[in-house]
Amino acid sequence: xxxxxxxxxxxxxxxxxxxxxxxxxxxxxxxxxxxxxxxxxxxxxxxxxxxxxxxxxxxxxxxxxxxxxxxxxxxxxxxxxxxxxxxxxxxxxxxxxxxxxxxxxxxxxxxxxxxxxxxxxxxxxxxxxxxxxxxxxxxxxxxxxxxxxxxxxxxxxxxxxxxxxxxxxxxxxxxxxxxxxxxxxxxxxxxxxxxxxxxxxxxxxxxxxxxxxxxxxxxxxxxxxxxxxxx
Length: 231
Description:
Layout: E1 8-11, H1 21-41, H2 46-58, H3 64-73, H4 79-95, H5 106-115, E2 119-123, H6 131-136, E3 147-151, H7 161-171, E4 178-182, H8 185-194, E5 197-201, E6 214-215, H9 218-225
Parallel strand pairs: 1-2, 1-4, 2-3, 4-5, 5-6
């Protein structure tokens, strides 16, 4: 007897919803280049003051500006630097200095799935503070409100089945009721061991999986998984 459609969809970002090089090749260099200018321009903002205070608590013996500069130069994913990056990226998107590059099939599919009553969430190695920005400034409009959760590796490594179990608990559904979309076969393996349904999204000529269903884009994945709006 075939399974009913899942109740939730969990999506990866890099290589699945956005090109792999967008975060590492565009967003991260932008935040490093804009750090000093942004801090000067927004020195009185409460959000910036909070970031500086957190950096000072993390390294008490050093000026927080120097601490942030060090983390930026070494791509160290400390929480205050990640928070500052999110502020810089939000400012860049608002001013038009950054343009979103979600694959064109992503937002229409997410809208159909949300309208169909599915719970949506993201799971990426990139800081969770980035995830809503990618959907808030999409060319199709702000779709960040469609999601019930934005998760990063603070819940656990993506290669570990236990991480996916914790995510299902956070979404309030059994793992079998979650469909995970990713380009990465090892992550799909971990999700499948946890009990999730899986589909590999192939972009940029990646090698297809032999262990998971494969789709070229989100509508094709919807057909495979029984989601609204399948081809």
